[in-house]
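Hey, can you fold this one?
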Amino acid sequence: MELLIAGYNCFAEDNGEESISLDSDDVRPSRSVEQHLNEWVILARTKALAAQGRVFEARNEALHWLTLEKP
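Sure. Predicted structure:
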């Protein structure tokens, strides 16, 4: 899990997103690790689709994720 978080933090730093702190005193972060990782996966998926020229599929993936109810 620590490697996934470290990978996400690199992504977050490069893309201006909120990083996940492993040293935080806050036991309940504003967003769960699972939410961060899901966001990372969908962003990677949409970037890959767009790079393949499948921009409409990338758009649909992003719109689907944005319309999901998140806790």
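The mean pLDDT is 80. Let me know if you want another pass with a different chain boundary.
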